[in-house]
Amino acid sequence: MYILDDGIRLNAYLDMPAGNPQKCPLVIVIHGFTGHSEERHITAAARTFNELGYAALRVDMYGHGKSEGTFRDHNLYKWLNNAMTVIDYARKLDFVTDIYLCGHSQGGMTVMLAAALKHDVIKGILPLSPATMIPELARRGELLGLKFDPEHIPDELDAWDGRKLGGDYARVAQTIRVEEAVARYHGPVLLVHGDADEAVPIEESIRAAKAYDNARLVVIPGDTHCYDHHLELVLGAIREWMPKVKQ
Hints:
Blueprint: E1 2-5, E2 8-15, E3 24-30, H1 40-51, E4 55-59, H2 76-91, E5 96-104, H3 106-117, E6 122-128, H4 134-140, E7 156-158, E8 164-166, H5 167-174, H6 178-184, E9 189-194, H7 203-211, E10 215-220, H8 231-246
């Protein structure tokens, strides 16, 4: 299925819980930078939501997976607009009772930003290894392992795997204030982070957990950014947290 956002088709997968209930809550699940909706940790999270009686709507964001747009031209504004469009789409589905957001890495930061803007309709959020350091790194000129003059951003940045990223990605990131988004959302938050994360320091989630009004942080010992070793502990944290929030 596709969800249309300003003429761009976003590829999406709707996973329903057993029995296809007439009414149930829904979790929008968003992958990370260079990722897609069929990654192991994304599909595992969606299955866990289904087991708990929630529908899961997995979405490929702009320039990723099977969605339209190019990787080079994606930026956080485009992803944030994607997220708000998907939330509006979910609100129009007849079976949906409540809406939650779950995102990994850049997707984790995206759901934090989207929840701030749609705080009146989002029941809870689950940022997984959220890459909240991206804006500050962009302001310092240290994005993607590269150093550049933050006042004179090049038109193109090297990502990896031979891919290029437009300079507007850094320009957009410099304007984002994650701390302001955190202050605007007062609903329940589950943060999950591996303490051996090679891409996003665990301190990012520790800081966010302290800043949110109602947050729980689950640390996955010895695990990586994509939970290569203990994904079952991530899913266990979701299984424990979600029923408490639903009450």
